[in-house]
Structure formats: C-alpha cells, structure tokens
Design brief:
globular; archaeoglobus fulgidus dsm 4304 fold; 4 helices; alpha+beta
Length: 186
C-alpha cells in the first residue's frame, strides 16, 4: 500500500506550527505535528535553511513512499529548493509544490495539455506549471529528489481530491493553520 505524506509549516512571528499528514488509499490520514520557536530568519531562495530542520523533525523515521513539500524542488534558482533538501536528507522521493516562481528566466513550453506547461530554465526542464482546469491559476510542481518532472506531475494529479493541492499536502496545510489559529501565544 502506497503511503504518501504532505508537510507544511505555519508561522506567527518567530513561532511555528508544522504538520505532517500521511495518507494511504482506504485508510484515515495520520497527522503528526510540532510547534516551537524558530530563530532562523526568512531569506529568499534560501528558505530551506529555515524550514528543513522543522520538517526533518516530523519526517525522521517515518515510513513514506512519497512526500509532497510546500516549496520548490528543482524549479529553483539554484535547482535545489526545500523539497530537494528534505528528499536528499531523508532519502524519500519528494515533490515540491509552490504557489509562485521565485525568480529567474523561465520559458513556458506547451505540452499539448492546457493543464500542464513545462518550465525551462537555462535550457533544462525544471518543473511544470499545472492547473486543475484551463482557467485556474497555476501551481508550480517540481521534483525534489528521486523523481523526474513527468513523475512529479503524475503524482500531483493522482493525489488531487479537493481544490488544487494534493490531498496529503492540503491536510498538512489545513492542520498547521488550524493549530496556529487555536494557539494562545502572547
């Protein structure tokens, strides 16, 4: 049985709430979470320095076949985003799912589908802009570790249930935000 996870982190100031949702077909999702303080500042393109240690504490030792990460994989100015760092660190195939491109010169190459456009950077395909419908705003999907761009896109569409976020990542996102809103922090 395939076990697929999604991980996300919510912030309020220096306080964080991270959540991991692990899903398997026909089973209830397993949700684990952690909260604490993060002293690492946000740095554009170096987001993995802030978030990878927080995610690693949740992921370490967990049995998963695939992990969706809220962040970039190879579709990153350094070709090495948060999903890449987490995947390599834990040797878990990862897919990065991001709401926006960070920066760089990206060319859009059509694939024959109105739902998928390849993202090319410096002559290499690094990810895909994907849409649930031809009129929806895109998400940016890229392999982090252990997958090709095509495999990352296939996993993305396989795990869509509600909206445009893959189900394990959607559950992690909702849970981390719910924890943040419920927290009583001075």
């Amino acid at each position: 049985m395939e076990r697929v996870g999604g991980v996300d982190v919510a912030y309020r100031g220096s306080r964080y709430w991270s959540a991991l949702a692990v899903c398997a077909e026909g089973a209830d999702p397993e949700i684990t979470w952690e909260s604490g303080l993060s002293s690492e500042p946000y740095r554009s393109t170096l987001f993995f320095l802030k978030e990878a240690p927080l995610i690693s504490r949740l992921v370490y030792g967990r049995d998963m076949d695939l992990l969706f990460v809220n962040g970039h994989g190879t579709c990153h100015p350094f070709y090495f985003g948060l999903a890449t760092v987490v995947g390599i660190t834990h040797r878990i195939p990862t897919v990065g799912v991001a709401r926006r491109l960070i920066r760089g010169e990206y060319l859009w190459r059509a694939t024959g589908s109105a739902r998928v456009h390849l993202i090319v950077q410096s002559g290499s395909v690094v990810g895909a802009a994907v849409r649930r419908s031809p009129t929806a705003s895109p998400l940016f999907v890229s392999p982090g570790y252990g997958l090709t761009v095509a495999e990352a896109v296939l996993h993305y569409f396989k795990w869509i249930r509600k909206g445009k976020i893959p189900e394990p990542l959607r559950l992690a996102h909702l849970h981390s935000r719910r924890l943040m809103r419920a927290a009583i922090v001075p």
